TrEMBL record, chain A:
TM regions (residue ranges): 32-52, 64-83, 90-110, 130-150
Pfam families, sorted: SpoVAC_SpoVAEB (PF03862)
Domain of life of the native organism: Bacteria
SUPFAM superfamilies, per the entry: MFS general substrate transporter
Keyword presence, Transmembrane helix: yes
Name of the featured protein: Stage V sporulation protein AC
Keyword annotations of the record: Membrane, Transmembrane, Transmembrane helix
TrEMBL record, chain B:
Full protein name: Stage V sporulation protein AD
InterPro entries for this protein: SpoVAD, SpoVAD_sf, Thiolase-like
A Pfam family matched in the record: SpoVAD
One GO molecular-function entry: acyltransferase activity
Length: 152, 339
């Protein structure tokens, strides 16, 4: 028992000691990058939506087409090896928009192509995006049920 | 009776085995680093003409063995054992290379401590009289390690400042019972030490206590002064781990501040090459030892080295199960006391 306690306190002490040594990232610089890159991606998407509306699409259709285009752009830039360089600078700024979602699907798909189209690409494609889908679908079902029971 | 054992964890060799030749192969990024001129082969393309990074890594390991054998003036058929391992699941690089080379093979897993693990076992085998020539070899590859342990390469994420960069490289050393070259006098086998670090992006801090423990044990067991060595060098603790190891060793009363360094800090220019805390991987201490250190020893610029390769014994599964990272470090004492 005593040995257990000294072990834990030793680990705690070491963790504290290590934390003092860990360099802090530049939060301001990182936030600015995330803010402007994320903002730029959204501005581009808004520009596309507005243009589509000018061409006579209604709001729902324009949104759908915009999402398709943004997903395509995210995937395309991932394929060209540009999106990971952007993500390195922008962090959440390029991960949160839907183009980042495309990146998280295309990146493993590319990576595991060598293991074949079924066990590689097929099985690994959603290794990063899978959890987002599972909990996204899951929560939408719950919200749907709540909506059904409480608003009718 | 274990007549060659001294202290609790150290072996002192009767007829110290000789390292008669080494060879190192590294990737393009390592080739742009500060040690560039010491490596035997610098790859232009990290696929090395293969279909996958895993096969490329295995080829690096295989070619390193062939070239080390040649440089030691021996033939492949003279090599009686191959002690080797790598980071990939089930040691793909080492065992596939051993298949092609046709040398009797012991596969080792010591994570990034494999260079000194294989040198230790190799030296014991030679001094024990079980072989005259054998090879100790290991490798790692940035891209094959990333996909096994971290994220796909094209995924747009940010690396932590404590993260290290897996070295694409392989190093092979021929250990012989006689010949010309630096000799292995002692080996100190490390214990697994774990102080509860769980952050897989801060492996230096996870491994530093193991390194410090082995270094202290080495000096306790041998009774040597720390100034005995021109260079005391750990495998891949990186910037943060090195600082911690220094202080932990000092805490036990051994001052290594003057002659201590880390392979992970030598192989890259962290600022210019954006490698954050430094290099890591089996190939880190392997290529630095087989390239830089060995060549400097042959030129008599460095005459005594304590090489301590450091390994983080985590797996993808252990990390997912929220376990802490056990560290290991083995020390090999190599000197120019030529007979």
């Amino acid at each position: 028992m005593k040995k257990q306690i000294t072990k834990i306190s030793k680990e705690k002490e070491y963790k504290k000691y290590v934390n003092k040594k860990v360099p802090k990232p530049s939060y301001l610089k990182n936030s600015l990058w995330a803010f402007f890159v994320g903002g730029a991606i959204c501005t581009i998407a808004q520009f596309i939506t507005n243009t589509l509306k000018d061409f006579g699409l209604n709001k729902t259709d324009a949104n759908t087409v915009t999402v398709i285009i943004m997903v395509f752009l995210g995937a395309f830039l991932t394929g060209l090896g540009i999106y990971d360089k952007l993500g390195k600078k922008a962090g959440a700024g390029s991960i949160v928009p839907i183009s980042g979602f495309a990146n998280s699907i295309v990146a493993p798909a590319m990576e595991f192509k060598r293991e074949g189209y079924v066990l590689g690409v097929g099985a690994k494609m959603f290794s990063l995006a899978g959890p987002v889908l599972v909990y996204g679908f899951g929560s939408s079902v719950i919200i749907g049920l709540l909506y059904y029971f409480f608003t009718r | 009776m274990a007549v060659k054992k001294i202290g609790t964890q150290t072996v002192k060799f009767d007829s110290p085995p000789v390292i008669t030749g080494t060879s190192s192969i590294v990737g393009p990024k390592e080739g742009e680093g500060p040690l560039s001129s010491y490596f035997d082969v610098i790859l232009k393309d990290d696929l090395f003409g293969e279909k996958s990074w895993e096969l490329a890594e295995s080829k690096m390991l295989r070619e390193a063995v062939k070239s080390a054998v040649e440089k030691s003036g021996k033939k492949l058929s003279d090599i009686e054992y191959m002690f080797s391992g790598d980071l990939l699941n089930q040691l793909m690089s080492a065992s596939f290379a051993a298949r092609d080379l046709g040398i009797p093979f012991y596969g080792l897993y010591g994570a990034c401590s494999t260079m000194t693990e294989s040198l230790s076992l190799g030296a014991m085998t030679v001094d024990g009289g079980y072989a005259d020539n054998l090879v100790a070899v290991t490798s790692s590859h940035f891209s094959s390690a990333e996909r096994q342990f971290r994220f796909p390469l094209e995924h747009g994420n940010q690396r932590k400042l404590t993260a290290q960069w897996t070295v694409t490289g392989a190093g092979a050393a021929i250990v012989s019972s006689s010949g010309y070259g630096p000799r292995i006098d002692y080996v100190t086998t490390g214990k697994v030490v774990d102080l509860g670090i769980k952050d897989a992006n801060n492996m230096g801090a996870a491994m530093a206590p193991a390194a410090a423990d082995t270094i202290v044990k080495h000096f306790e067991d041998t009774g040597l002064p720390t100034s005995y060595y021109d260079l005391i060098i750990t495998g891949d603790l990186g910037k943060i781990g090195k600082e911690i190891a220094e202080e932990l060793v000092l805490d036990k009363g051994y001052d290594i501040l003057k002659n201590y360094n880390d392979c992970g800090l030598l192989i890259f220019d962290n600022k210019a090459q954006d490698t954050h805390a430094g290099g890591s991987g089996c190939g880190c201490s392997a290529s630095v030892f087989c390239g830089y250190i060995y060549k400097e020893m042959m030129k008599n610029n460095i005459n005594s080295v304590l090489l301590i390769s450091t390994g983080a014994l985590l797996s993808v599964t252990s990390t997912q199960q929220k376990q802490s990272i056990p560290g290991i470090a083995h020390a090999v004492s190599i000197t120019n006391n030529r007979c």
